[in-house]
């Protein structure tokens, strides 16, 4: 069998490996830490840094195609691999998504055709930049340009003094000040585009975040109108085409209280908000990534069941605020009809660490929601409704 390569050893690589293997491929993972979720599932592992030239050469030599599951893999490494084998997504696409400034500029450039703009923003690279902040960008959120995820590297700011303090605390890295927008709700659109330029767009997903981390994804979204779904899907299709992207990509949008659609960011890979596709769609986002990178026809994105995905963080291993941990009662969770449990094989259940996810599928969204309530009761997760 042919081997597909993955840069990165996290849960996205693990679920990718499962999908690839079920389609008859072997999977090789390159990741610096030998004990990782994707490594446990892969057929072979290269334990090395993401920029290790001989490791990259070894990966390129054994794989018919290479992808990435890690957003911050050095773009240069993907460019190097591309001299040897087919790489999707391409280095240039990944580097745009790695830099919030390039990403925002790209979204602005796309706007005439995509019809959506990013939040008003300004680069903050020096104290002079802080003096020049226009009044209407405050209150806002100061975000590091690179490396932020799950709300890390972000500070909410009200005044110029807040910006100065937050910027100083970021140790001189370039930041972006983004205007705080009045969100009604958040959605994401998962897309896949093949090397032949054909693209598919999954149903729109509605996302709820808690403490900066994705909490639930509900599809179909209870707040999403057909008109909003079409606008976001058209925008996503336009953006991936303008990027010349190959592979699975997820675009996050804000829907403002006045109905305006704002593009937030994109992830050049399968995405947490797309995990529901494993259990609720004909082709999962991971199977779709396999198809795109292996230059096979893209799969049917049809959703066959309403679904709610709940992220399972390390917190559910803890009772109260102490340090004692115990295994959650998975048997009780699995007794719920329509409960699909995915655990990532991580040994240490640290708080706020993504340990797994649970997708509740049901004939109706109301029933899926009832199961979510039951699952949250078993796992001691508060649901503020
Ligand atoms: P991810 O884990 O999704 O990659 P991230 O750390 O890259 O997250 P963002 O997605 O930019 O960060 O922001 C995290 C969350 O913060 C958003 O999902 C949204 O809830 C809130 N947020 C971000 N920017 C804004 C904004 N301009 N106005 C209002 N809320 C915002
Ligand atoms: Mg992000
Ligand atoms: Mg985000």
Automatic annotation (TrEMBL):
Keyword Nucleotide-binding: yes
ATP-grasp domain sequence ranges: 108-294
Catalytic activity: 5-amino-1-(5-phospho-beta-D-ribosyl)imidazole + hydrogencarbonate + ATP = 5-carboxyamino-1-(5-phospho-D-ribosyl)imidazole + ADP + phosphate + 2 H(+)
Residues making up the signal peptide according to the UniProt record: none
Residue runs in coiled coils: none
Molecular-function GO terms, alphabetical: 5-(carboxyamino)imidazole ribonucleotide synthase activity; ATP binding; metal ion binding; phosphoribosylaminoimidazole carboxylase activity
Protein's pathway: Purine metabolism; IMP biosynthesis via de novo pathway; 5-amino-1-(5-phospho-D-ribosyl)imidazole-4-carboxylate from 5-amino-1-(5-phospho-D-ribosyl)imidazole (N5-CAIR route): step 1/2
Keywords, sorted A to Z: ATP-binding, Ligase, Nucleotide-binding, Purine biosynthesis
GO cellular component term of the entry, any: cytosol
InterPro entries reported for this sequence: ATP-grasp, ATP-grasp_carboxylate-amine, ATP_grasp_subdomain_1, PreATP-grasp_dom_sf, PurK, PurK_C, PurT/PurK_preATP-grasp, Rudment_hybrid_motif
Binding of ATP, residues: 100, 143, 148-154, 178-181, 186, 209, 264-265
GO annotation, biological process: 'de novo' IMP biosynthetic process
EC code(s) of this entry: 6.3.4.18
PANTHER family to which the protein is assigned, alphabetical: PHOSPHORIBOSYLAMINOIMIDAZOLE CARBOXYLASE, PURINE BIOSYNTHESIS PROTEIN 6/7, PUR6/7
NCBIfam families recorded: PRK06019.1-1 (NF004675), PRK06019.1-2 (NF004676), PRK06019.1-3 (NF004677), PRK06019.1-5 (NF004679), purK (TIGR01161)
Subunit structure of this chain's protein: Homodimer.
Family: Belongs to the PurK/PurT family.
Function according to Swiss-Prot or TrEMBL: Catalyzes the ATP-dependent conversion of 5-aminoimidazole ribonucleotide (AIR) and HCO(3)(-) to N5-carboxyaminoimidazole ribonucleotide (N5-CAIR).
The protein's name: N5-carboxyaminoimidazole ribonucleotide synthase
């Amino acid at each position: 069998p042919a081997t597909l390569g993955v840069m990165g050893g996290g849960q996205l690589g693990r679920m990718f490996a499962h999908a690839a293997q079920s389609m008859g491929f072997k999977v090789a993972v390159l990741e610096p830490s030998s004990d990782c979720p994707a490594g446990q599932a892969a057929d072979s592992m290269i334990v090395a840094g993401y920029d290790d030239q001989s490791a990259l050469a070894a990966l390129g030599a054994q794989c018919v195609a290479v992808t990435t599951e890690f957003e911050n893999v050095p773009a240069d490494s993907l460019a190097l691999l591309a001299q040897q084998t087919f790489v999707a997504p391409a280095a240039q696409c990944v580097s745009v998504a790695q830099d919030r400034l390039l990403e925002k500029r790209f979204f602005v450039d796309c706007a005439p055709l995509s019809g959506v703009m990013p939040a008003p923003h300004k680069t903050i690279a020096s104290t002079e930049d802080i003096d020049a902040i226009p009044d209407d960008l405050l209150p806002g959120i100061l975000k590091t340009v690179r490396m932020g995820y799950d709300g890390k590297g972000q500070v909410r700011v009200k005044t110029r003094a807040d910006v100065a303090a937050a910027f100083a605390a970021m140790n001189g890295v370039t930041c972006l000040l983004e205007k705080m927008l009045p969100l009604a709700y958040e959605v994401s659109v998962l897309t896949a585009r093949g090397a032949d330029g054909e693209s598919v767009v999954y149903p729109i997903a509605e996302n709820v975040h808690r403490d900066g981390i994705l909490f639930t994804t509900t599809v179909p979204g209870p707040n999403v109108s057909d008109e909003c779904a079409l606008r976001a899907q058209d925008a996503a299709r336009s953006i991936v085409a303008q990027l010349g992207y190959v592979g699975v990509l997820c675009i996050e949008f804000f829907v403002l209280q006045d109905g305006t659609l704002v593009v937030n960011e994109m992830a050049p890979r399968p995405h947490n908000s797309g995990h529901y596709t494993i259990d609720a769609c004909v082709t999962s986002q991971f199977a779709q990534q396999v198809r795109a990178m292996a230059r096979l026809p893209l799969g049917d994105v049809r959703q066959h069941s309403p679904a709610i995905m709940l992220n399972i963080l390390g917190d559910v291993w803890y009772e109260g605020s102490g340090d004692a941990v115990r295994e959650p009662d998975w048997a009780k969770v699995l007794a719920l009809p329509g409960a699909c449990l995915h655990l990532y094989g991580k040994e240490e259940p640290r708080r706020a660490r993504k340990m797994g996810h649970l997708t509740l599928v049901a004939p109706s969204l109301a029933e899926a929601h009832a199961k979510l309530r039951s699952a949250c009761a078993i796992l001691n997760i508060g649901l503020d409704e």
